[in-house]
Amino acid sequence: MTDTNTNKPMLKIDGLHVYYGAIHAIKGISLEVNQGEIVTLIGANGAGKSTTLRTISGLLKPKEGTISFEGESIGGVPAHEIVKRGISQVPEGRRIFADMTVMENLDLGAFTRSDKDGIKADLKTVFERFPRLEERKEQLAGTLSGGEQQMLAMGRALMSRPRLLLLDEPSMGLAPLLIREIFSIIVDINKTGTTVLLVEQNANMALSIAHRAYVLETGRITLSGDAKDLAASEEVRKAYLGG
Amino acid sequence: MEMGQQVLQQLVNGISLGSIYALIALGYTMIYGIIKLINFAHGDIYMVGAYIGFFAITQAGLSIVPALLVSLVTTAMLGMLVEKLAYKPLRHAPRLSVLITAIGVSFFLEYASMYFVSPTPRTFPAVMDSVAINIGGLVINGQQLLILGITFVLMVILTYIVKFTNTGKAMRAASFDTETAQLMGINSDRIISITFGIGSALAAVAGVLVGIYYNSIDPLMGIMPGLKAFVAAVLGGIGILPGAVVGGIILGVVEAFVSGFISSTFRDAAAFAILIIVLLVRPTGIFGKNTKEKV
């Protein structure tokens, strides 16, 4: 559908300002995500990374600036409509529906869809990617371990068959080994055709898998470029990579 | 023997009354679950339901089941309208503002009803022959059977909706975490509206059944059952559906025992004593989980 404009970015944010009540959280950021990329947004706690994702998803309304996805403006479109347009988010802290079963969580991920065969096929893919979810599909989601909950949150987001996947701090609270597993799954999801916008405090890991990166500081983008270049830059190393 | 039979008789009376409380409490608890509002106008919605049933029978000449359906549908629409006009504009307002609005809606429904249908109590027509089953001295009358039967059917339907339909799953998801539900593509405004519709429909049925049971309805009839159903919802654990049913039935049985063995004067006192005890001993209610408020 959108292959005609491959040279245009899939997601384009321009001069975005967002307020959290009285707090001016995003102060005029612009960024682009191209089809097929993994782009990461790194920065300290409170820099505005989650706010950016929440605005893309429609949970917050931009005060100023534009967001367009596949050529259409989506700024201020309500959250439940955004999913239908092909953007899905794995929120910070996973936010799984703890008192529902794993299966019900995955069903809810496909809430906007009615193509039964397609849903079935995607469920199969999710179970192949996360075999532990299949083993525990009748279990209450709240009884899963942290890593399993992260997998469930990702599987749930994939069930809407997004073209752009937003990931908010997938490494949060996980052991290093699990983080590596989750990140290799992200690479895998990207390779099968899903574009990824990844927000991370763990800059090391994020830069290791991303194609491009933006550094966010108190609501402004201070640096951007190839993930490899940023990982090598003195400034980023000092501020985010621990020397 | 004699005593045992009396206990059983009060149990039957209590469960019938408790079913009514349960139907009203379900609406309370569903609405609380989804927007964290104690909808103080819920008892008045029940009253409106009773009046719609009353007019459907006396003016339109309908029999009981069609009258129930008319009342159920109309009251559901009223509940959705109240939500749209009074509560939806306050979605991001402090909870206290919404609560005060609910009290305002309650007064509005009570006094608007007085204006339109007069404050005089009306005699609810007898809709069924006074049959009664006698099982070895234990008497279950036709009204009680009707209440138990209809309540049972409604619970089965509600359970099916909540557990197995997409709307039901969306309701549970939105109750648990409205924002994440939106990220799934769930239109939370629509789900909130449907919840008010279902809750109001259940209250309407309770209103008509009470009209049949006690033969009398008036514009202020919703106040006491509304408060009692609130007690029932808190007793079972507010926000939890099976809790509302269990809480309602326990409350009904306690009231029946107090009126049967002590004095009906203490009936209401017993209900509110339960509220105080629950709040002191186990504020989360019977089925409540000890969850911390999310920030």
Describe this structure in words.
- The complex is a heterodimer of chains A (243) and B (295).
- Chain A has 243 residues and is α/β, with parallel strands linked by helices.
- In chain A, 37% of the residues lie in helices and 26% in strands.
- Chain A has 10 helices and 10 strands.
- Chain A has a 6-stranded mixed β-sheet with strand order 6-7-8-3-9-10, sandwiched between helices. Chain A has a 4-stranded antiparallel β-sheet with strand order 2-1-4-5, covered by helices on one side.
- In chain A, strand 1 (11-20) and strand 2 form a beta hairpin.
- Chain A is globular.
- The N and C termini of chain A lie far apart (45 Å).
- By secondary structure, chain B is mostly helical.
- Chain B has a domain at 19-222.
- Chain B contains 11 helices and 4 strands.
- In chain B, the strands form 2 sheets. Chain B has a two-stranded antiparallel sheet. A two-stranded antiparallel ribbon of chain B has the order 2-3.
- In chain B, a hairpin with a 2-residue loop joins strand 2 (132-135) and strand 3.
- The longest helix of chain B has 34 residues, at 2-35.
- The radius of gyration of chain B is 19 Å and the shape is globular.
- The mean pLDDT of chain B is 92.
- The chains are: A alpha/beta (243), B mainly alpha (295).
- The A-B interface holds A 57-59, 78-81, 83-84, 88-89, 91, 95, 97-100, 104, 107-109, 111-112, 156, 160 and B 166, 169-170, 172-173, 176-177, 179-188.
